[in-house]
Amino acid sequence: MKTSFLSRSVPLLVLTLQVLAGASAPAPPPVEPAPPAFTAPAPVPPVMAPVTDPPVLGPPVPAPGAPALPLPSPVLPSPVPPGPALPAPVQPAPVPAAPISTVRGLWVDAFGPGLKTRAQVAQTVEDAAALGVNTLFVQAVRRGDCLCLRGSVPHITDRDFERNFDPLTIVTRLAHARGMRVIAWVSVTGGVNARVPNTHPKHVSRLHGPASGAASWMSRRPDGSWLEGADGWLDPAIPAAADHMVESVVSLVRNYPVDGVQLDRIRYPDGGAWGYDPKTLARYRAESGTKGTPAASDPRWQAWKREQVTALVRRVSLEVKAIRPTAWVSAATITYGAPPAPGDLAAFRRSRTYADVLQDWPTWMREGYLDLNVLMNYKRDSVGEQGAWLDGWNAFAASVRAGSEVAGGTALYLNPPGITAAQATRTVASGLGWVGYSYRTPTLDVYGTRQSTGQGLEAIRSALTAPGGALATPVAWKGKPPTVRGLAGRVVGTAVPGSRVVEAVQEGRVVARTLTDGGGHYGFLTLPPGRVEVRVSGQRWVEAVPETGVVRFPDLLVRDVAPAPAASGKP
To answer: How many Cβ atoms sit within 10 Å of the Cβ of residue 410?
Structure first.
């Protein structure tokens, strides 16, 4: 017999109270914070290697008469304590737009009940089907640990996790049987939760945590501190850490029939003053030719760190497409503060998304690194201008999406069902897909422990499926990812493999340009099929890009014409 939402209200209320009150359960993602005193620096070009590359990265130079290549561009999500439940303001009736995406999704987090036992997974899938969503964004990698048994990182060691149980296997099987897609959600830079540390001996916090000395992979402030709240973050600028993070995502596509992956926490922590591990500083000095320790507000330092995040997104996408070109690569992206006007990339580069947490998601979409961008558009229509901000970020993302699909993610836990339904309806009417956060806290009253999860699910189901609601009529998400091919390579043989200019040449003209990451990796995902010549640091190689799949160029040996700067970490 099908279990209804209300029949599970009492036990789930107890569980919800225990989880939300206990130290083991982090609060849901932050809401829109009061804006701090913040002035975004003027954007600067990415830092170039001082050895053999040109000093400034400008746009590729096309052949005479060819159109100029576009410059890359970047963006973020938000936290706020919930305010009083107010009636939803009256919104004008939305005018339906041509659909950009038909995804209708639900995030399922792993910090409470929902994925930790066979019974919970079965109930989660049943509840999602009753709600009418077509996609589950299932948290697979949490803080360096997996809700799975065949990933590259250890499984979670929570005491309420059922033994010998593989959640990702079961949720994928059950959801597919109900016609839903499953996207494996990964907290990419998540390293450790200090309140509830993973006890597995091979967990990243034990091998490369804050007490690991030179082997540490933690992102740090200038004073060496590493905690943001209860969390420690891995630094994307440390090459070995980047290898670890890439594999944590790719192993899920390799070992499970998931429909794609979603990159969460693909950024630096809030505040801007991060990335001060000695290894990161040594890399920056070697690649930029600078000395001393850069200030957090130094625009060149910010641009360099932002490039490390973008390079991590690119490499994940290439590695996923190399295994399964039809897998979706998605990211949960930040939308802090007032939105830029549609198409206004200059305003975006003045936002906290770009200048504080160093996300450049417009570039990720334009360069083909993302098939689907899910905005963490966590706003409360009853607070100030946040309702207009939600609509504005949706409009901006749609205007810069290139070929990517875009969905608006809204915060179920911050709003009563009526406002959630209004936000979802406006989002879908604008042509975007919609995803709700989250299954475990589906209403403001559930978040505030005034209502059980089952009651909250029933409340939003009623609101979302009412006539005219976003889930009133079942919609399938049958789209195919826009990116299905790429080119990947690496430079070796030098002490400074990062920040080197790589050019892609087709039919005698430069059609794309990028930079190598700290491990010398580079790649492209928007090249048309056919012969392409890659040029980097005096090396050249020609290969054909396939119609589908990723071609890997051989390692290119770089010989520096002058001694590379010492990477000692000392000024």
So the answer is: 28
Query: What one-letter code names the amino acid at 436?
Result: G
The CA distance from 340 to 354, in Å, is 12
Cis peptide before 438 (omega within 30 of 0): yes
What span, in angstroms and rounded, lies between the C-alpha atoms of 193 and 99? 39
Distance CA 548, CA 546 (A): 5
Q: Give the pTM.
A: 0.85
The tokens for 403 are 């070929």
CATH superfamily of 485-557: Immunoglobulins (2.60.40.10)
Q: Where in the chain is the domain with CATH 3.20.20.80?
A: 104-465
Reference 137, options 247, 259, 231; nearest CA is 259
Buried b (16+ CB within 10 A) or exposed e, 436-454: bbbbbbbbbbbbeeebbbb
> Contact 453/131 with Cβ under 8 angstroms?
no
231 forms bridges with which residues in the sheet? 193, 228
How far apart are alpha carbons 350 and 360 in whole angstroms?
A: 11
Residue whose token pair is 């003045």: 350
* CATH level 2 (architecture), domain 104-465: Alpha-Beta Barrel (3.20)
If we measure between CA atoms, which residue out of 474, 458, 456, 376 comes closest to residue 423? 376
CATH 2.60.40.10 domain locations along the chain: 485-557
- State which H helix or E strand residue 21 sits in: helix 9-21
Q: How far apart are CA 248 and CA 390, in angstroms?
A: 32
Q: What is the pLDDT along the chain (571 residues), one digit of tens a residue?
A: 333 343 343 333 333 333 333 333 334 454 554 433 334 444 444 443 333 332 222 222 232 233 333 333 333 233 333 333 333 444 444 555 779 999 999 999 999 999 999 999 999 999 999 999 999 999 999 999 999 999 999 999 999 999 999 999 999 999 999 999 999 999 999 999 998 899 999 999 999 999 999 999 999 999 999 999 999 999 999 999 999 999 999 999 999 999 999 999 999 999 999 999 999 999 999 999 999 999 999 999 999 999 999 999 999 999 999 999 999 999 999 999 999 999 999 999 999 999 999 999 999 999 999 999 999 999 999 999 999 999 999 999 999 999 999 999 999 999 999 999 999 999 999 999 999 999 999 999 999 999 999 999 999 999 999 999 999 999 999 999 999 999 999 999 999 999 999 999 999 999 999 999 999 999 999 999 999 999 999 999 999 999 999 999 999 999 876 554 544 444 3
Q: Is 271 helix (H, G, I), strand (E, B) or coil?
A: coil
> What are the structure tokens assigned to 461, written together?
């189901």
Q: Do the beta carbons of residue 196 and residue 24 sit within 8 Å? A: yes
Say how many residues make up the chain. 571
Helices (H), 48-136: 118-131
DSSP state of 297: T
Q: Kindly state the helix (H) or strand (E) to which residue 163 belongs, with its residue range.
A: none
- Dihedral pair phi/psi, residue 371, rounded to 5°: -85, -30
Rounded Cα gap, residues 28 and 6, in angstroms:
23
Q: Could you give the maximum distance between any two Cα atoms of the chain, in Å?
A: 74
Bridge partners for 514 per DSSP: 502
Phi, psi of 447 (to 5 degrees): -60, -35
